Amino acid sequence: MKGDFIASDGWCVEENTAWFIGTEYNAIFKVDLISLECKIICHLPIKNVWKSRQNPRCVKVGNYIVCLPSFSTSIYVYDIEDDSFQEIEVDTPENESLSIYHYWCDAGYVFAFSRELQRVLTIDVINKKTFLSKRIDERISAMYAIKVGQCLWLPNSLDNRIFSYNLYSGEVKKYLLSNVKGKLYAICYDGEHFWITGNRQEIYVWKKEENLALIIKEFPEKFTEYTNYQEGKVSIDQISQDFKEPLFNHCIFLNNSIWCIPFQTNMILKINKNTYTVSGISDDETANEVLSRDYNHKYLLDYVRNDRYIGLFSLRMNCIFELDTKHSIVKKKNYYLTNEEKIDRNFPVFSEAGINNFFYCVLLRENESNKNNVKRSIGEEIYERIVDKH
To answer: Is the pTM above the cut of 0.90?
Structure first.
């Protein structure tokens, strides 16, 4: 299809350049954000690859690209000047995978949160050394983390608690949101309060100092959740209090508003920080259209840039759409690959079998005993109405 682009998420943006590792191809790509030109730099020298998103994140530190894995214990560091890789093996309990989707940089170090281990990995990029913390808490199962000050803030997907973890002292604190009944997932910070979403049709504004959560329940009238996407069946539900999946994959604070990026819901939500008013960008997707796509959720988050733009990848349409949070409009971005011939087609690629991994299974796990159960394949789709308009 004309306009197709490399499947990806988690771009590392540095001024007008971005780096990412492909979803289909375990290779490093470089993007010019002005010309929209993309080039493959090299494939990772990995072994035993059979799943997509083998390395869902990468981060540029000086002249190095640090490749952060999901399904392995190896971190590959690419030297841009020497065009060479160095492998760093991480000793994990029972050789469990690292499952890294959130990271932060500070003075040559990368701090990465492991979803599978519920630990923090510190990477000394220059000296190629790592340190793995102890488990944050025995009862934590966080799938999302943000850094505010010296601490990570982690909503618990098992219940209504939030954990904080000091990156430098290792101190852990727990906060119980007593008036919140559901489970928690995504979180962002507006400079004053935390905004949290979970598996209920509610948005929580948490005032930490008071340990008080304001609950926003007034959603747009046509907001729906597709609750049953298995065995060729789908239901559109506007009533349920507790959904099986999280309502939103991401919460992002930009331009005085909180932007909630959906899992299966039919709207991107915009919440005004000051007035708490909620509006939505809708796709008007029907039940039959839900069944027509191969995946049970909608977006991969590619990037947030210039404190304004959110880049979303559509796995169904194989292209990127950019949300301008200043004007609340969405446009297709025609990124293109200039040296496609350098892709090694013999490398394992995205497949239905490959995507059936624990990436979103762990989002929904009820306890540690069933953390390896497999969830139905994941995926994303950009809104049909947006496509029609732009």
So the answer is: no
